[in-house]
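Re: weekly structure request thread

Next one in the queue (138 aa):
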Amino acid sequence: MKEFIDMRHWPLVGLHMPEQVADERAGDMIAQLESLYARAEPFVLLMEGVELPRQSGRFMTTYAQWSRDRFADQQRYCLGALRIETDETLRHEYLRKAEAWNASGRAPYPYRVVATRAEAETQARAWLDASSHDCTLS
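Done, posted below.
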C-alpha cells in the first residue's frame, strides 16, 4: 500500500488517495497532513489515486473539518496541487473540475491536471522557483 503522504522528494510531496479509508486509519491520515504542514515550508502536492475515497465517512468528515480549519496554512505553504492522470477521459473530467475549483474562489492553492509525472515536476519546479524568487524580493 502506498503512503497517503510521501515527503521523500521534498518539496515535491506525493499524496496518494486510497479507494477507501477504514475508520481506524482516518486519524493517522490526518496526522500525516498535520506533519506535512507542521514543517511550515513551501511545497507542491503531486496527487494520484482516487479523487475522494468511497465509504469512508469518518475520514471524509474529519478531512473536511481539517481543510476548513487549516485553510490559511494551505494557502501559505502549498504552492499548488497537480493531479497526475494518464487516462485521457479521466484527465478531461478532472480538468473540468479543476477549472471550476480554481474559479470558485474557495481554492486555497492552484490546482492543475497533467498527464505525466514529468509534466507535474516541470510545473512544480516553476511554482517553487517563482516562490523562491518572490521571497528574495521582499
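The chain has a mean pLDDT of 93. The chain has one domain: 5-137.
Next request, please.
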